[in-house]
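Per-residue structure
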Amino acid sequence: MARSTSSATARTASRTARGRMPISATGNKRDGERGFTLVELLAVLAIMGIAAAAVLFAMPSQSTEARSAAARFASAAEAARDSAILASAPVAIRVDRTGYRFERWEGGAWTPLSRKPLQPVAWPEGVTTRIDPAGERIRFDATGLANPVSVLLSAGGVTARVTIDAGGEVTLVA
């Protein structure tokens, strides 16, 4: 029968045979053990993700450009209609590929307007327009009635439409 070595008095190797227990003091690592901890890497990834999201949301996309340009144009058309009613004088919007501007019928001729909110506006870069039916002016008479028109704004494959009916009602379909 073999002797058991699991007792409290069992013989073990000498202290010199066992060697020293490896202890790593702060800043005293060997070359192969240098690097970043998992917590440090996750913190850096979280910071990079937050920064990337902030940049992404700060940059306007072309799809939002078309929609926001259409919303601004619809608001401007409503302001032109209201101005025509308040002044009891026809107001027109001239739309072209660069932007739109406002005019008022005074003294037998169209006079450009340049006061807020009827200031000339340039389309944002990348926005294209199409007017149906094509014509010189979108006119609002002194009672707010208009010549019916549809203005289509496109950017980045996204389109938005502003329609003005004969009653002067402005509708945005984005």
About this structure: The mean pLDDT is 83. Residues 78 and 121 are 15 Å apart (CA to CA).
